[in-house]
Automatic annotation (TrEMBL):
Family of the protein in this entry: Belongs to the sulfatase family.
UniProt KW keywords: Glycoprotein, Hydrolase, Signal
Gene Ontology MF terms in the entry: hydrolase activity
Record-linked Gene3D superfamilies: Alkaline Phosphatase, subunit A
InterPro entries: Alkaline_phosphatase_core_sf, Sulfatase_CS, Sulfatase_N
Source lineage: Bacteria, Bacillati, Actinomycetota, Actinomycetes, Micromonosporales
Domain Sulfatase N-terminal: 3-342
Record protein name field: Arylsulfatase A-like enzyme
Length: 470
């Protein structure tokens, strides 16, 4: 019997704000139910820590230089094959509700679904507009996270019970600007713990880190904080006050997502679907929760690169299991197709996680992951373009700092720089050791590995522009 698939994806939910991942600042009891009944990937990473590019990778099983969604301003060409379309051709019922964020109109709207209803762009937290399959827009009163779950449950009620289904539930939350619902707005009366790297001055990093405009104490807006800064606070006190305003609203939005995950899990239990349904909870990327003094994502630092990925399938995945293998969002499509016994498209570039989730040792599994952030020096966050490779123990990052003329990037290039981090000795990535002679052999090996993984996925390394002849 082919399994049903329920894929729940939040927006910007950092793994270190999930209870099952050892969060020190919040609890997520319903999301944790998935891990308790299944598996947790300890090392799951995105190929580009940005909403639209990550979503394109998840749907197509390809890197962004292949699917063409490299920045937030490059829309998705929906002629590309996506895994729900392959499932649909194989007899699955397919549906998508919630955030799409890959463009709208005949060339960009969701494809491969029997039913979809999505918010335009980022969507609103309260009384959001939804776009239906016929292109009409409708305001749905209420809170977005609850409404998305309502739509998912309504579709489940109307499906054909004799056929397998694939349901994608894409939440807006906890995306900026973090508007909690009424139920959770008074959570976290006490102050939330401050991350140990909150006061990072980035003296141990490349210039790109100091150029970024994502600092909690400087760059959050009045819409984010929703309250005037009290007078007479010194700079340190103001930074901590702002952090508390930010992190509490973020975690309140997460609490609503967790409640709604519980609603879907309860629905599966009540309708006898649990044993035959794969349930996944993930996010489109990680997020800085005051780590390094930042909010947002984009960088290849751990908090941004790492994704939560919890999966339950009682028929095959051992309850309470974990794997430390290096997984990527480019693997998701082939994993779902493998479980459904549907051949993957030849264009897909990942690998099925299924043998790892069964607890098998896969001798030829990857030992490094490739990352590339393309949206160079955008108007708001000013993070420079970079690519890199991460192994179990080290990370090499190259800031080539050139927008390459892509939409949404700056025309101003910067001087390239490297970073190298020893993830065992320096898990917070506070000090690059790229120029440390003691790491010379490791640096050379990582440069070679970066070139190898670029070739393997078909990406092209940056080349400096040719000098203009006189």
């Amino acid at each position: 019997m082919r399994p049903n698939i329920v894929f729940i994806m939040a927006d910007d939910h950092a793994a270190h704000a999930v209870g099952a991942y050892g969060s020190k600042i919040n609890e997520t009891p319903h999301i944790d139910r998935i891990a308790a009944g299944g598996a947790l990937l300890e090392n799951c990473f995105c190929t580009n820590s940005l909403c639209a590019p990550s979503r394109a990778t998840i749907l197509t099983g390809t890197y962004n230089h292949v699917n063409g969604v490299q920045t937030l301003s490059t829309e998705f060409d929906n002629r590309q094959l996506v895994f729900p379309e392959l499932l649909r051709r194989a007899g699955y019922q397919t549906a998508l509700v919630g955030k799409w964020h890959l463009g709208h109109g005949p060339e960009h709207d969701p494809r491969g679904f029997d039913y979809w209803e999505v918010v335009p762009g980022q969507g609103r937290y309260r009384d959001p507009v939804f776009i239906g399959m016929d292109g009409t827009e409708q305001v749905r009163p209420g809170y977005c996270t609850n409404i998305i779950t309502d739509l998912a449950v309504d579709w489940l009620d109307q499906r054909d019970p004799q056929r397998p289904f694939c349901l994608l539930v894409h939440h807006k939350a906890p995306h900026r600007n973090w508007e909690p619902d009424d139920k959770h707005r008074d959570m976290y009366v006490d102050d939330v713990a401050v991350p140990g790297s909150f006061d990072d001055d980035h003296s141990g990093h490349a210039a790109a880190a100091r150029a970024a405009r994502m600092r909690v104490d400087r760059d959050l807006t009045a819409d984010d904080i929703k309250e005037m800064l009290p007078p007479h606070l010194d700079p340190d006190e103001a930074a901590l006050w702002t952090y508390q305003r930010y992190i509490k609203d973020y975690l309140r939005c997460v609490a609503s997502v967790d409640d709604n995950v519980g609603r879907l899990l309860d629905y599966l239990d009540e309708h006898g679907l649990t044993d035959d349904t794969i349930v996944v909870y993930t996010s489109d990327q990680g997020f800085f929760l005051g780590d390094h003094g930042w909010y947002d994502k984009r960088f290849m630092y751990e908090e941004s690169l790492r994704m939560p990925f919890l999966i339950r399938y009682p028929a095959e995945i051992p309850a309470g299991s974990t794997t430390s293998a290096l997984a990527m969002n480019v693997d998701f499509a082939q994993t779902f197709l493998d479980y459904a016994d549907v051949p993957a498209d030849s264009r897909m570039q990942g690998r099925s996680l299924r043998p790892l989730l069964r607890g098998e040792d896969v001798d030829d599994w990857r030992q490094s992951v490739y990352y590339r952030y393309w949206e160079h020096d955008d108007d708001e966050h000013h993070v420079w373009a970079h690519y890199g490779v991460r192994t179990h123990d080290h990370k090499l990052v190259y800031y080539y700092a050139d927008g390459l003329g892509l939409p949404g990037t700056s025309a101003t290039a910067q001087e390239p720089e490297w970073e190298l981090f020893d993830l065992r000795a320096d898990p917070w990535e506070m000090r690059s050791v790229y120029d440390d002679p003691a790491y010379g052999r490791i640096r050379a090996a990582l440069v070679e590995e970066l070139a190898r993984v670029q070739r393997e996925c078909g990406d092209v390394p940056w080349q400096p522009p040719a000098p203009v002849s006189g």
